[in-house]
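Need a sequence for this fold. Nothing fancy.
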């Protein structure tokens, strides 16, 4: 078994602790020079200790939430990106604290220096951590066992991380259990993709007994079972899977969170709304907003709002997805689409209760009908309100298949928490720096849906 598997928690905790300690030290040293002397009553002794501990805790918690500690899984660029977001968040809280203590708007120059020094330290730390992890964790040699599908998509995606994974051989389920175990014995890790339930069960137990790492492409049933709670009333293990979506308490907390955040966002962004609205109106005199029928919780229909980025009557001949160099997109539309701000009016939908900040992306009615006919389980994603951002939006792509998006949406629904919402909101920033693909949606076949 690989060393990283045996010491994964130790490596991750050590990594995030070192990162937080270095950043906290930088913050403390610059703060003492740039801010502490300016206070009417400078911090001394216990006051300085409290300040340092508070900064360290906030940074460490935000780093854990964003996954900065996952140095054994993420690419260097992703670690740096999430680390930078954690630093911005923590420094924002620290700067707010300084302003409140001084009762004035403090000079931000010191905080800028702090962030730049921390960012440099983050880059160096990421590189050294990556070198250490790769030395401890050489690329895994894997066998992939597949069923009716050739699993080429999984092979392609994992081959993009050749410093982590090397798929050496593939084997079809038609070879039978005995022959498959002979293949398994040659490798340290196995990928099980689209394998019938009974054979998959036997393969999982064989791999577990022989200390093989197992990568399983989950089915919808796996996602439901994974979120089950344990019943301990009897001497037989029992798992309970809930199928009602969020509890009443969770819905109340989520709604309060949506109202507070959407109200603040509308106040802060109102000048930007006004500028965009004027630009759209002055360009061609058409309506500012574009309305589109979408489905939300319990398949209830509503009109989603967007800033109009296309010419008037762009879909008079029926729904047509936008493509590169689409002639229907106006000059104003190109700008707001590039900046990902054409979706901002959906904050109004959130305030009205038609949407949530985080949730499955609301689909067009015609898409719902199409996907539901081909994927009967597709309606399961409507146990919660549609969201402005969500699990599938953060971890998927524009052209991710409908079935894979469904699985990601169900992971969110079955594992909902306010902490998960906060994490997804912070991670949504990453999407703003990624160019979306304009390929059409693909729906998987009807197999592999048990």
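Here you go.
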């Amino acid at each position: 078994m690989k060393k990283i598997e045996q010491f994964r928690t130790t490596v991750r905790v050590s990594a995030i602790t070192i990162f937080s300690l270095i950043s906290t030290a930088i913050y403390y040293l610059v703060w003492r020079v740039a801010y502490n002397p300016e206070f009417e009553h400078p911090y001394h002794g216990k006051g300085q200790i409290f300040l340092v501990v508070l900064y360290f805790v906030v940074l460490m918690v935000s780093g854990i939430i964003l996954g900065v500690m996952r140095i054994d899984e993420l690419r260097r660029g992703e670690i740096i990106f999430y680390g930078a977001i954690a630093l911005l968040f923590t420094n924002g809280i620290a700067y707010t604290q300084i302003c409140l203590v001084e009762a004035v708007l403090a000079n931000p120059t010191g905080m800028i220096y702090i962030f730049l020094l921390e960012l440099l330290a983050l880059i160096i730390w990421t590189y050294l951590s990556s070198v250490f992890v790769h030395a401890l964790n050489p690329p895994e040699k894997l066998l992939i066992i597949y069923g009716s599908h050739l699993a080429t998509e999984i092979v392609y995606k994992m081959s993009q991380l050749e410093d982590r994974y090397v798929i050496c051989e593939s084997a079809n389920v038609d070879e039978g259990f005995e022959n498959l175990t002979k293949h398994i014995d040659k490798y340290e890790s196995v990928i099980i993709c689209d394998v019938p339930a009974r054979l998959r069960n036997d393969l999982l137990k064989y791999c577990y007994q022989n200390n093989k790492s197992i990568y399983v492409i989950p089915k919808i049933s796996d996602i439901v079972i994974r979120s089950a709670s344990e019943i301990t009333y009897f001497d037989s293990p029992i798992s309970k899977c809930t199928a009602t979506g969020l509890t009443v308490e969770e819905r109340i907390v989520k709604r309060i969170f949506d109202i507070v955040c959407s109200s603040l966002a509308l106040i802060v962004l109102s000048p930007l709304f006004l500028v965009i609205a004027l630009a759209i109106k002055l360009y061609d005199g058409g309506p500012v907003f574009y309305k589109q029928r979408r489905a939300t919780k319990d398949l209830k229909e509503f009109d989603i709002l967007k800033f109009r980025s296309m010419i008037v009557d762009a879909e008079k001949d029926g729904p047509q997805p936008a493509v590169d160099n689409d002639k229907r997109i106006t000059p104003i539309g190109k700008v707001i689409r590039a900046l990902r701000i054409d979706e901002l009016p959906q904050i109004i939908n959130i305030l009205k209760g038609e949407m949530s900040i985080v949730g499955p992306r609301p689909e067009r009615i015609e898409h719902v009908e199409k996907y539901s006919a081909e994927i009967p389980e597709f309606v399961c994603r409507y146990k919660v309100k549609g969201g402005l951002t969500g699990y599938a939006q953060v971890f998927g792509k524009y052209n991710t298949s409908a079935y894979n998006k469904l699985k990601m949406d169900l992971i969110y629904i079955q594992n909902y928490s306010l902490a998960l919402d906060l994490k997804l909101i912070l991670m949504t920033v990453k999407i703003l720096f990624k160019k979306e693909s304009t390929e059409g949606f693909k729906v998987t076949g009807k197999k592999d849906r048990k």
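For context: The first strand starts at residue 140 and ends at 146.
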